[in-house]
Amino acid sequence: MSDGAGGEDDAEPGAGSPGRTWATAGVVLLLLAAWLFGHGHGGAPVDTAGLGRAPTAVAADHPARVYAARHPLPASPPVRIDVGSIGLHAKVVPRGLVDGAVDPPPYSTPEVAGWYRDGPTPGENGAALIVGHVDTETRAAVFYALSTVRKGALVAVTRADGTVAEFSVEAVEVVEKDHFDAERVYGTGDTDRPELRLITCGGTFDRAKQAYSANVVVYAALTGSRRP
Questions:
Q1: Which of the chain's termini has less CB crowding within 10 Å, N or C?
Q2: Could you tell me which CATH number the domain at 25-226 has?
Q3: Residue 68: CB partners within 8 Å, gap ≥ 6?
Q4: DSSP code of 140?
Q5: Is the C-alpha dihedral spanning 21, 93, 77, 130 positive or negative?
Q6: 120-134 residue pLDDT tens
Q7: Residues 6 or more apart from 19 whose CB is under 8 A from it?
Q8: Count H helices, E strands: the chain?
């Protein structure tokens, strides 16, 4: 993903102000897109079987909607994400913007995912965003296997209030960065139900540019919640 560095590494979880609106979503989308488009990988990719570079399934123009939970959850920041079907079990930390772009977790902690803290929390109405690296110069990172997740897979997001928001994967999509539609992918103000987006790098790695050619996007919708 990006070489984002900044002062966000020790940020405390925060859900923002209750009753938030997304009137500034357009500006935020542009900033998010700038992160996905404009930053390099910081080194050659791990020499592995290629997970994270070509998804096993590519979504149609509009992801198929699953049966979604009727009621959204109150705001509460995520602290953990689990996708058992691909062996993904990771800590989630809040991330903000640095120099006009989303600041992902640093390469020094590649096993950690980042939640965009100025958007919805997972389980609220709108599309919550969790991002992560696919790999580093030396090893696989948190979202290395993200492209292999299947439609219908369970994504469990543990929140600070102790609830586990359960999402079902509706689609997996690989999007070339020069065709990335930020408004469609992020669209926090365009959905009337709780949704989740998981995003990492994908496609092929350009050694000259030190960047991947595409992004892998997983679309999921809230189907329930529980307490452990």
A1: C
A2: 2.40.260.10
A3: 193, 194, 221, 222, 223
A4: B
A5: positive
A6: 999 999 999 999 999
A7: none
A8: 2, 10
